[in-house]
Amino acid sequence: MTEAAELSPPPDEARTLFGASFSSAVRYAELLADAGVKRGLIGPREVPRLWERHLLNCAVLSEVVPEGVTVCDVGSGAGLPGIPLALVRPDLKITLLEPLLRRTNFLQEVVELLGLDHVTVVRGRAEEVLGTLPPVHVVTARAVAPLDRLAGWGVPLLRPYGEMLLLKGDTAEEEVKGARAALSKLGVLEASVLRVGEGVVDPLATVVRVEVGESPGGVRFAAKRAKAARTSRTRRRR
């Protein structure tokens, strides 16, 4: 297990942040360093910095997720940020949404191995599950796509007055400015940039918060959502 040998020891901050789930976080890191690399889910160069750059950076997203809500992690990939968030927040009901089979297989294995009963893995794209996946309070994502495109996928999955919480990089402010027109058409009321992880990660993690109003995705997506729901109900009756 050559790749796993390169995994650095968990920092003290990990023990504090993950608390009772610390041993599960360690097991997840080992899985990423081994099977995650072998299956092409993460690059081998990421292994030495898995804790700081990936697990901790994703887990601190929990600071801005409300208590007891439903969450959909869009384009979950290897489970980032969905699985670290699930380890820190057992009060959440989380769906890991991912279109690629090899990734959903890995995610399902991790969920079962770690006993994450509050996590469900769904294979599909955001536009495919619209109307079949119940609307959620929060949509999360990390480095999946530019903000305007990502909002087009994630906003329609939200409940009225829900929010997207997106882990972004140094260009977050510029992305928000450039996407304001597109966000407005999707029924977004406010988009802001937050810094989280004080005392845990350095630099702080950057989160773009996208808050929606009464009609997430706008009128066009409301009609599409309703049509998909009707189709789903018809199929279940057959």
Explain this structure.
The structure is a single chain. The chain contains ten helices and seven strands. It has helices at 2-5, 12-18, 22-38, 50-59, 82-88, 101-114, 126-129, 147-154, 172-185, 218-237, and strands at residues 70-74, 93-98, 119-123, 136-142, 158-168, 188-196, 205-212. Strands 3-2-1-4-5-7-6 form a seven-stranded mixed sheet, with helices on both faces. Helix 4 (50-59) crosses helix 5 (82-88) and helix 8 packs across helix 9. The longest helix is centred in the last third of the chain and has 20 residues, at 218-237. The mean pLDDT is 92.
Number of strand segments? 7
Helical content (DSSP H or I, runs of 4+): 40-55%
Task: Give the overall shape.
Answer: globular
**Strand arrangement in the largest pleated sheet:** 3-2-1-4-5-7-6
Radius of gyration: 18 Å
**Classification by helices and strands:** alpha/beta
